[in-house]
Amino acid sequence: MQFRTGTADDVATLWALRTRCVRETCSSHYPPEVIAPWSASPPPSQYARLLGQGGCVVAEDAQGALLGFGVFDSDANEVDALFVDPDRGGQGIGQALMQQLLAMADPIREVVLSASLNAVAFYQRQGFVADREELYPHPSGAALASVRMHRPL
Length: 153
Description:
This protein is α+β, with helices and mostly antiparallel strands. It has helices at 11-24, 32-40, 46-52, 93-102, 120-125, and strands spanning 2-5, 56-60, 66-73, 78-84, 111-116, 129-137, 143-151. The two termini are 28 Å apart.
């Protein structure tokens, strides 16, 4: 596995993986009426900004095939996204990506994130603690049940 910084040229490819993850992985915890608008939504405008700031890590195999990616918002000290190819789950890719994202964090502030329900256990294994359940107002109009989490210093 190798890592590189994602660029604005990667948005379409990364978003296609994200959409597949929503449909295949998140569907275990969300009903079809939530998955449909969530998975159909376009990339948010903040992605171009975050990728432009160097806040995206892309994991690829030795042949350059996309394994997963993560996005970190350094202004908010927040993990904005972390997705792994559903066919490659359980191979340590998500954990390796998380380590790359945490290396971008401000060490004197807690790292925060809003976890989809299917990802809470993964983030707990990475040292995150649940703060509260919330409804994330997704740009698609869907209110996504999620868990606000932080990683103690």
